[in-house]
Amino acid sequence: MPENSVICLKNIHKSFGDLKVLKGIDLQAHEHDVISIIGSSGSGKSTFLRCINLLETPTEGEIWITGEKLKLARNKKGDLDASDPRQLAAMRARVGFVFQNFNLWPHKTLLENIIEGPTQVLGKSKDEAIAYAEQLLRRVGLEERKDFYPSQISGGQQQRVAITRTLAMDPQLILFDEPTSALDPELVGEVLGVMRDLAGEGRTMLIVTHEMQFAREVSNKVMFLHQGQVEEFGHPDQVFGNPTSERCREFISSVY
Amino acid sequence: MDFNVIIQYFPRLLEGAMTTLELVVVSGLIGSLLALPLGLARHSHRPWLYALPYAYIFFFRGTPLLVQIFLVYYGLAQFEFVRESALWPYLREPYWCAIIAFSLNTAAYTAEILRGALGNVPRGEIEAAKTIGMRRVMLYRRIMLPRAFGMIMPAYGNEVILMLKSSALASTITLLDLTGTARTIIARTYTPIEIFLAAGFIYLMLSLIIIQFFRFLEKRSNRHLVSTR
Amino acid sequence: MFDLKGFGDQLLAGTMVTIELALASLVVGLCLAILAATARLSDNWFARNIALAYTSVIRGIPELLTVLIIYFGSATAIMAVARLFGYDEYIEISPFVAGVIALGLTFGAYASEVFRGAIIAIPKGQREAGLTIGMSPLKIFWRITLPQVWRLALPGLGNLFLVLLKDTALISVVGLHDLMRKTTEAVSYSKEPFLFYSAAAFIYLALTILTMVFIHFMEKRNSRWGDK
Predict the structure, then answer these.
(1) Strand arrangement, sheet containing A60-65
(2) Which residue among A149, A234, B15, B142 has the highest number of C-beta atoms inside a 10 angstrom radius?
(3) Which residue ranges run through the membrane (chain B) (predicted)?
(4) What is the DSSP letter of C6?
(5) Which residues of C touch A93 (CB under 8 A)?
(6) Which ipTM score applies to this complex?
(7) How far apart are the CA of C218 and the nearest CA of chain B, in angstroms?
């Protein structure tokens, strides 16, 4: 039922020209679900995640977010694009997105990065937004750095701020697009720690990741994508411990 | 729009365009001859060598060309000794004054371009030349300058286009270049829009020709850079 | 401050006009540049090509000719339109207005290329981060893209302003009482062209140096959030 799930995706297709990247993917997430999406590079997992909030326009499919169907219409290139920009913006405000390379705005301080959305999109007062931002920053241990610019802190710290920027919007769902792939190995842990806390709070999350150990520990469902299709979907113990698909078995044994 | 005026006076405008081209080519040649020593000296790290070129370049790039033209054309005549010198027959001619001002001006810009290119010759290539025992003069003659000339072409092409456009200032000291010709025609016909647009069109064509010419030169001088695409 | 045989005040007054002209043209030129740059990058075929034609034509013809066309041409054009409505009077536009239009057009054409390069240089992810929190494209352009464009474009714009500053001298040709014109007047009274044109040259040089100092200051201020 799309109505009572946080997110419901039906039959998502995506082609770039002749290249079919996604070939009909369904996914439903309920409240408190933490779903990891795994697969080799080129399997389409990032593209799939970017289709959810229309950073990438799908060629086919339906998107329901918190019971509301996103209105789509075909654009000039033949893809589906939002037909109601207001609805899209409102939905995006409810769905957080954490990028692989953080994408903090370099001309704003950490605090300014975090309050941009609440003040500009949600219409909160500046004082209220700052108070909330400081509270969130304290939780990721970066309160003292709030007036720094992104270029003055490490990659791991930047990603923690990027996650905070997303949390400041009070999203009902957070999408993570390989959040640790651009980090030096020694900085991966601090970001995973923050994500683990969020999962513990009962946040609904979709995570594209290469960190198999983390995926196994934190998520309650795992989706394995191969060549744009779902090869395996289930509880992490089953997907990692006893996969039914031969390709999934090969993938798991190659990365473990 | 009165196209008849354009057709009637187009040959005269073309004559003016020839004067414009002549100004650009002559002062371009003199200017680049001046630019070579200026740019080399400017590239030096010794203050007594680079100080004077630095001041020269700064002055000519920091003041309007119109002031420079007036300084040469009106300013020099203020001095008795200039008027009595053997050069006076030339220095009182607007044509030669324009050539002098343009040459000095473009020399400054070109020298700065040359300095930039010399600074961009990869250190490794210079070191390679030193390791086979090249001394300074040979290093510049055989390695640095040829490499710099290859790098200069796009920027120098731009400078020639800018020179073509600034040559219109010759008309302010009564020279009948393309702009000057257009202005005299208009004084008689009172059709500024038609004649100025026709002149603008000819300038556009001239810049296109110059751009093509420098593309061709660039290709030739960078023959050694085999394209991998 | 400096007397110059009694013409010092005149030259100073002319310098003020030169500065006013440069600043007014800068404002007009920046607006045109942003418009043209966004048009060049838009999906609209018509907007793209209009902007391309504008920048190529202006950059291909002499600044002096642009000034002459605007000064004489626009008066003729306005009169032609006025005649349609029954006015038959001689109309003239002021040299200052003509100068602002001509220099603004020129600055705008070159600066649009600087802006275009800067906009392209900003990583796509910057925009996407704005999209994911639900910002509208206009808001993203205004709050995310433009502030970053400034920093990337500043050196290029600074150079173009130095060119603009020198180009103001051209407006004296159509009778604006700027520094150049005042100098020529001083010359015709005093018969000392070398002295006065040298003085003018050094005033222009001083303005150039002031501008360079200001640009340097702005770049420093901007690099607060710059690279490590």
Answers:
(1) A19-29, A7-16, A60-65, A68-69
(2) A149
(3) 20-41, 53-75, 139-157, 195-217
(4) T
(5) 133-134
(6) 0.89
(7) 20
